[in-house]
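=== RUN LOG ===
request id: a7f3
mode: sequence -> structure
chains: 1
length: 300
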Amino acid sequence: MASTTKRHIKPKRRRVKNLYTKREILARVESLTRRQFDDGREIDLLHFIFNKSNIVSLRGSPQKVLDAIDEYARTKKYLMNVGDQKGKIVCDLIRDLKPRLMVELGSYIGYSAILFGATMRDAGGSKYFSIERNPEFAAVTMALVDLAGLSDIVKIIIGPSAECIKRLHADASFGGRIDMMFLDHYKPAYTTDVKLCESLGLIGPGTVLSADNVIKPGNPPYLEYVRSSVEDKRKKFDQGGFKTIQTASFDKRWRNQYEERVGEEKLDPEQLGNPNLVYESHLIHSYEPTGVPVCISPIY
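=== RESULT ===
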């Protein structure tokens, strides 16, 4: 009787080419598990860029400066920048709208100021104001904006957003109504700052608001306000209903963003805005540089 034997063939291991280096993978993991900003990485970014052997070629080139920032964020430490995907959405809006005057709330290290400032300049715009609460972040932004050759277009204003908005309004050289505003700063201040701009006449018919992170991590008070009808807003305006600031609905990381530096952030509950303005709201789904899905909300 013939016997048979089974041959156990060990499958060959398939070698998969890594899309990221070990350092890049660690940087992405760190971005999801540890503190993501204000731990010295912003100053470290400056040393990284200004110590590059090709620093001369970066001068006057917004794209090369952005590439250097991306390189640091990819190979060293995560940076909470707007990123290329969300950045393209806003850049497309800028090219379409051709704003003469644009204001950004929240500079961080200047990535968006460089990207949007350069796009606005190419589209014929003349003034880009970027407001930043943290003076260290503002200093980093100034250095990188200057390196990119955009100091004639992009101006950095340092201080709490509401205070800076009032200063710009009082400045005769500011230029009047804002054509486009990008909101990416202290999340609970989105609504109060928009209402302040409405009250001062800085935004009105024709102004476009582009707000980041309205779905993730989320900004229910802002979406409620811009989506409310004129009738609902007038009713709440007359009753002072918008004076309540719902900070409890925000994640602790965003709610206590400035706690270590300046203590509890104070928002002005007296800003009632202009209830007669009507906004047309759109949600555009995109991704953070880490791959986390988010939304940008252009408001017309």
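=== NOTES ===
DSSP finds 14 helices and seven strands in the chain.
Confidence is low (pLDDT under 50) at residues 1-17, 290-295.
=== END ===
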